Amino acid sequence: MFADVGSVAHAPKALEAGVDGLVLLSAGAGGNTGWLNSFAFVRAVRGFYGGPLVLAGGISDGAAL
Question: Is residue 35's pLDDT more than 90?
Answer without folding.
Answer: no
